[in-house]
Specification:
Helix content is 38%, strand content 27%. The protein contains eleven helices and 14 strands. Helix 2 packs parallel to helix 5, helix 3 runs antiparallel to helix 5 and helix 7 packs across helix 9. The radius of gyration is 25 Å and the shape is globular.
Length: 379
């Protein structure tokens, strides 16, 4: 998909426009374990068994390793570095699965037979699985990491999948698509393009959720109901609709993730009917509450002055039949206007409410600046 999203960029030194049409944005790798990782982990858990004249895996040591790695993953998760946390626990889970299944690298297969103790291996594997279940799988933060990664990857996979999309608009710097999801009442909208602003100027637009009506097309109101963490918001928003339709309200749980180790910021969101941090109010009679199944933003810095932004939402608009006139209205006045509106608002002028917010939350925005600078490619 991304190879077709980019149009012409800003002029280069020779006066020609920079062609961004084939910029490649690789997917975030799934957790995997290497031979070296397996060897290192096995070495950490081996102990000598003088009676049998060989080494065996020490389940107590393995519990310590699980506990230690889980604590590091919790720290990453608390720092909003979801994919670092998920990769850490994912690799450990794969290692456990490889041991429990009796799998081994071909070059170590003979050695493994000695280490694992032949017929005793099944018993050992059960002990390892039990240790993993007791220490990791019963841990609430571990479960939260797995759930958050699943949600974020679902959003990213929808971005990367080109199947079934209908072209709405294609220009030199913006491409948008839509599709009716088969056998469902949902529609998906996707728009991608370049915003001539640093990612640090775009993040405040997404983080200060109650200010969405200042830039998001046709948004009438946005109220922050809860903020469980610095990049986690529960928001009630309302979008204006053309007559005779009532306005559309959404109760959104959105969370931003620092994935700058892969040069991107991921914001994933979805509708909620209940939430542990806030009571979800009933929908007023003068509006209709829509159901956002999956959505969010993907920000990829190109340089200090431009950012590639992808926006995607899969939702049930609560319209029995969506006529083409309403579809075209939504595409023309909302989807295809997001980038231009975002770009215009991201160049903060004196008196901007965003400058005021950034001053009040100086520590947070200083942290974002630091993360951005430390992850920039070294010259």
């Amino acid at each position: 998909m991304f190879s077709r999203m980019f149009g012409k960029g800003k002029p280069t030194e020779d006066g020609k426009e920079k062609d961004l049409a084939h910029l490649h944005i690789p997917p975030i790798p799934e957790p995997s374990i290497s031979t070296d990782y397996t060897k290192t982990m096995r070495t950490k858990t081996l102990q000598e068994n003088p009676k049998e004249g060989k080494e065996t895996l020490n389940v107590a040591k393995f519990r310590e390793i699980i506990t230690s790695e889980l604590e590091l993953a919790k720290k990453d998760f608390a720092d909003d570095k979801l994919f670092l946390a998920a990769n850490r626990v994912g690799k450990l889970r794969l290692f456990v699965e490889s041991l429990a299944a009796g799998k081994a690298d071909a070059e170590n297969r003979d050695t493994n037979k000695d280490v694992e103790g032949g017929e005793d291996y099944e018993k050992l594997a059960e002990q390892i699985q039990k240790a993993w279940a007791e220490v990791a799988e019963k841990d609430e933060t571990y479960q939260a990491i797995i759930a958050a990664e699943k949600r974020a990857r679902k959003f990213l996979r929808l971005l990367e999948n080109d199947e079934g999309w209908n072209l709405s608009h294609e220009g030199t710097r913006l491409v948008s698509h839509w599709k009716a999801e088969k056998d469902t009442d949902t529609y998906s909208f996707r728009v991608a393009g370049v915003v001539d602003a640093c990612v640090l100027n775009i993040i405040p637009l997404l983080l200060e959720t109650d200010l969405y009506p200042t830039w998001f097309p046709l948004m009438k109101s946005a109220e922050e109901l809860a903020s469980p963490s610095r990049f986690h918001k529960v928001v009630k928003s309302m979008l204006k609709m053309p007559f005779p339709l009532l306005g559309r309200e959404a109760m959104i749980d959105g969370r931003g993730w620092d994935v700058m180790e892969h040069n991107r910021v991921v914001i994933s969101s979805m509708s909620v009917e209940s939430h542990p941090d806030v009571k979800i109010p009933p929908c007023a009679k003068d509006r209709v509450r829509v159901d956002i199944k999956c959505g969010g933003f993907l920000l990829v810095p190109i340089d200090d002055d431009s950012t590639h932004v992808t926006v995607m939402f899969n939702l049930n608009p609560k319209v029995p039949y969506l006529p083409s006139s309403i579809m075209n209205f939504f595409l023309r006045h909302v989807v295809n206007q997001i980038h231009s509106s975002m770009e215009k608002k991201s160049h903060f002028k004196p008196g901007s409410p965003y400058l005021e917010r950034m001053a009040k939350r100086a520590d947070l925005y200083a942290y974002l600046e630091k993360r951005y600078q430390e992850t920039r490619p070294k010259a």
